[in-house]
């Protein structure tokens, strides 16, 4: 039985939901029949070091690439999307040029015979709960809007406001880096409608400030429908990448990850900027609350490491720290005072991040902190981070020490 994927639009992406091809048989037997029914000539490119391995060369490795031919008719039917059969996820692209799959699994796609069709098949555990974005990028393309794959039991996409009731603004604050170079750093903030009319408010500070623009439509919908109390977002832009300065590529990591490349100066400088400049500015200008119990911090990847570290070092300032797929090593020594609560998330495809997050949770629990770690079937993926932000925020509000 052929089930064509249902496609919905979410914030400029396309979401593939419940894609399947055949039911009622085991993954291996159905795959064998599928392969025998209409074999095609497929030349599989060599995988780069660090990519997923081939299933037939590495025992028990999952995810792994399956080197089996896709019928041309099936490839045509699913061109530009992905479909599932058992434990196998197959991506299909249509292009006259070679195509690379960019997703939690980065690998070159294989051409189907002489057709302008390209495929990549992977064996993946728990596809029913998977959620991740992906791009199939042709050689001649530099950018492409991502699509999102959702398993039938994955969380459904949250509603996002098309027009905000609240307001997003961008301000520039004076920034002096660790080398005493002065510049302006953008601060992006969101304040919901009715902010000035109530005292029951909270604020989330975060790195990677442009994330505020993507999260604001989620919060705005929930706040407008009274599914969330009033919460403001204050995001500080990451260190810019300057083409003429190759070292600037690592500026974000240096500012967010304590001790990255044995450098603590950049982190300490950025921490001081957030604590001594951004927070006082936000309290004066946006009227965000100053009480510890209403002040949270969040981030993802490197900025997730910053969120946890800054809360750990300054427990008197933040009641809850939230991090998605944080990148970084063990925490530096913590500050004095009541420990914040911590909510971490990590993807099951994240071979380094997930074990590190488990070790961090254990460290925090040994120190006497409340620490939670949830896993999701995905990789290092912005779509998952943003969708999971609201559950993290709800938990933070429930653990707030504010009256």
Can you describe what's shown?
The chain is of the alpha/beta class. It is 25% helix and 29% strand. The protein has helices at 27-37, 72-77, 211-224, 251-256, 265-285, 302-313, 353-366, 382-398, and strands spanning 2-3, 6-10, 13-17, 20-21, 42-43, 64-66, 81-85, 88-94, 99-102, 107-108, 110-112, 117-123, 131-138, 147-150, 167-176, 182-191, 201-206, 230-236, 295-300, 320-324, 341-347, 371-376. The strands form four sheets. It has an eight-stranded mixed β-sheet, with helices on both faces. A six-stranded mixed β-sheet has the order 2-3-14-13-9-10, covered by helices on one side. Strands 5, 6, 7, 8, 11 and 12 form a six-stranded antiparallel β-sheet that branches. The longest helix is centred in the C-terminal third of the chain and has 21 residues, at 265-285. It is globular, with a radius of gyration of 23 Å.
């Amino acid at each position: 039985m052929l089930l064509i994927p249902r496609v919905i639009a979410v914030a400029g992406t396309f979401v593939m939901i419940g894609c399947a091809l055949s039911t009622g048989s085991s993954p291996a037997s159905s795959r064998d029949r599928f392969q025998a029914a209409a074999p095609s000539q497929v030349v599989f490119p060599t995988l780069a070091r660090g990519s997923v391995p081939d299933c037939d060369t590495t025992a028990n490795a999952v995810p792994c690439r399956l080197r089996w031919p896709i019928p041309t008719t099936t490839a045509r039917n699913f061109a530009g999307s992905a479909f599932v059969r058992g434990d196998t996820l197959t991506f299909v692209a249509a292009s006259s040029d070679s195509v690379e799959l960019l997703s939690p699994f980065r690998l070159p796609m294989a051409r189907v015979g002489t057709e302008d069709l390209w495929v990549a098949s992977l064996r993946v555990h728990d596809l029913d709960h998977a959620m991740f974005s992906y791009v199939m990028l042709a050689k001649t393309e530099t950018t492409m809007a991502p699509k999102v794959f959702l398993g039938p039991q994955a969380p459904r996409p949250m509603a996002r406001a098309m027009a905000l009731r609240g307001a997003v603004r961008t301000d520039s604050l004076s920034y002096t880096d660790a080398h005493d170079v002065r510049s302006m750093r953008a601060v992006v903030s969101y304040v919901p409608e009715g902010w000035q009319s109530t005292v029951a408010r909270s604020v989330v500070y975060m790195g990677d400030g442009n994330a505020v623009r993507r999260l604001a439509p989620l919060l705005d919908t929930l706040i407008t429908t009274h599914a969330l109390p009033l919460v403001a977002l204050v995001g500080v832009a990451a260190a810019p990448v300057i083409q003429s300065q190759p070292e600037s590529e690592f500026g974000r990591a240096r500012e967010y990850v304590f001790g990255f490349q044995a450098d603590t100066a950049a982190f300490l400088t950025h921490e001081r900027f957030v604590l001594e400049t951004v927070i006082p500015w936000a309290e004066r200008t946006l009227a965000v609350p100053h009480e510890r119990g209403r002040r949270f911090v969040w981030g993802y990847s490197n900025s997730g490491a910053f969120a946890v570290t800054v809360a750990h070092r300054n427990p008197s300032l933040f009641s809850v720290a939230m991090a998605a797929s944080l990148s970084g090593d063990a925490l530096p020594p913590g500050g004095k005072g009541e420990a914040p609560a911590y909510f971490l998330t990590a993807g099951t495809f994240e071979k380094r991040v997930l074990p590190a997050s488990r070790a961090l949770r254990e460290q925090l629990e040994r120190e006497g902190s409340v620490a939670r770690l949830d896993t999701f079937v995905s990789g290092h993926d912005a779509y998952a981070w943003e969708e999971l932000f609201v559950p993290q925020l709800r938990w933070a509000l429930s653990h707030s020490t504010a009256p």
